[in-house]
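User: Can you help me understand a structure? I only have the sequence.
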Amino acid sequence: MREEQPLKGRVAGAPISWGVCEVPGWGYQLPANRVLAEMAAVGLTATEFGPVGYLPTDPGPRAALLAEHGLGAAGGFVPVVLHEPGAVEAVDRALDAFGGGQPVLVLAAATGREGYDTRPELDAEGWSALLSNLDRAAARAADRGFTATLHPHVGTMVEGPDEVARVLDGSGILLCLDTGHLLIGGTDPAELARAAAARIGHVHLKDVTAAVAHKVAGHEISYTDGVCGGLYRPLGRGDVDVADVVGALAAAGYQGWYVLEQDTILDGPPRDEGPVRAVREILDYLRGLFGGQQ
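Assistant: Let's start by predicting it. Here is the structure, written out as tokens:
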């Protein structure tokens, strides 16, 4: 039987919905106090941390800042060059800032280049190192009381279906199921939720305009230009079947976070509600879809 309220108490925000991103030159970056205050104002009760250094790196002040806004910690997105030496040490440094609670470590297999517009090809030796480091990173996180996941992501070393399958077959790490990045990369997120339910440890909910996604996937436009050109849409206004994805996860017994991500690039301080309007629209959509909860 499908769970009637599969998202209840497990919806979190992310600073990327306010245009805050680790990529250099990614538009105007709003200050943390404003973003956290606006998250709380729309009814969110937890957030991911955003780029390294966006929130205080000392876990005490970080936890105090979140608590000031009534927010818990859902996770942290950490891009790491996983196919090179030093990957696990980089993960360890990132975990130093995670503090208490159980925020999820959301790894991305970074390329070593800036941004997500281009990526190299890995040879067999590189893949062996990447898969080995994924297991080592997951074990290190577990030793410290955290769950590690790998986020298939456009412009990283794990983007398309073959690469996702290679991670599932060649390592034991859990996945962050990002409905947008998977669809752009060519993976049906609902099919993945059904086929690999036991390997899903975290979820990012976003919607995608398929026509723009095809241009990004076909290298007709860059990822950055895609984001500027309407790649991401509020849930229910794009081509991702959110109900199918959440239903598949609920049927499989998934109990983790659903993080709302409406990736955007700001050209300056919003003159009106800006990102808040989009996040509020997403929450209204989810309430309508899943019985008035959030």
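Now, to help you interpret it: The longest strand covers residues 72-80. The CA atoms of residues 92 and 140 lie 7 Å apart. Let me know which part you'd like to focus on.
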